[in-house]
Design brief:
The radius of gyration is 22 Å and the shape is elongated. The chain has 2 domains: 189 residues, no CATH class; 91 residues. It is built from 11 helices and 4 strands.
Length: 288
């Protein structure tokens, strides 16, 4: 290990300790797993970016993003692939792609991220736009928005609104506006009243699933799951409907068969846009 790399590692560890000690103590709400790929970067830039994954994990995990009403861990996978270093006289500038997931109903890839990053500068939340930190904030808020839409009807609205405010700020940046118009349009689509039926379906289904598997409150779970069936015909976005089925058809069908709710199971099967699922439904319906 070179002397410079040694002191770089010492700095990263010290910075993480400071961030953790400064954070308020509370039940954990979001658990980020950050991976950073710098293979395409010159050696000098790789050294500058060393330890960035741990710094980002500390920043995301220790910040209070909102009220902790449900007190359970929210998984958050954040992958950054550095594509290009753009050295300019006064800063290190990069292009990167990111992939974000909550290991559930939300996976998103973004190839249009351009930002400045100065090694050694601690990550501290600020309302002002920052080309690096603000994208981290944006996607963390999006994950929280999707998560709280699952546990409360339209419960993610505040998080989506905060994400939209970041995108609106970013579009005013003269240097780092790349990709932010599309990000704002994406939030607008989520909050569009035309998307309310999809958000409501997610709330009904995921609440029912949680009550069924986690709380073991089968009777209350049944009411949510049966009511969710009635929402299926209201979904007009074919891609969203297909995504919902790809994620949930097996568990949904299994739960309905356990309840012996054959008419609802038949409805679930009839709306499913994925032909490969038909054999599964037939096996369940043969139990009648």
């Amino acid at each position: 290990m070179t002397v410079s790399r040694f002191f770089q590692n010492i700095f990263v560890i010290s910075l993480i300790i400071v961030m953790v000690m400064a954070a308020p103590v509370s039940a954990q709400r979001i658990v980020a797993d950050v991976t950073v790929n710098t293979d395409k970067m010159p050696p000098e830039n790789q050294s500058k970016l060393s330890g960035l994954d741990r710094i980002l994990e500390a920043y995301i995990n220790q910040r209070e993003w909102g009220p902790n009403d449900y007190k359970y861990d929210i998984p958050f996978d954040f992958s950054i692939n550095f594509d290009q270093a753009l050295p300019v006289e006064f800063e290190d500038r990069y292009k990167a792609a990111v992939t974000i997931s909550n290991r559930g109903n939300y996976v998103h890839s973004d190839r249009f991220w351009q930002f400045a990053h100065e090694p050694g500068v601690p990550l501290v939340f600020d309302q002002q736009f920052d080309s690096f930190r603000s994208l981290i904030d944006f996607y963390t808020l999006m994950v929280l928005g999707y998560e709280f839409d699952k546990v409360e009807k339209f419960g993610g609205r505040d998080y989506f609104e905060q994400a939209r405010q970041i995108a609106q700020q970013a579009r005013l940046s003269s240097r780092y506006y790349l990709g932010w118009e599309k990000r704002e349009e994406w939030v607008d689509e989520i909050l569009d009243p035309l998307n309310d039926n999809m958000r409501y379906l997610n709330f009904l289904y995921y609440t029912g699933e949680w009550l069924y598997y986690t709380e073991r409150d089968r009777e209350t779970a049944k009411q949510y799951l049966l009511y969710a069936i009635k929402q299926l015909d209201k979904i007009r976005d074919d891609n969203q409907l297909r995504r919902f089925y790809e994620l949930n058809f097996h568990d949904y069908g299994t739960m309905l068969s356990e309840y012996e709710e054959w008419s609802s199971l038949s409805k679930l099967a009839s709306v499913d846009p994925v032909p490969e699922h038909s054999d599964f439904y037939e096996q369940l319906l043969d139990k009648r």
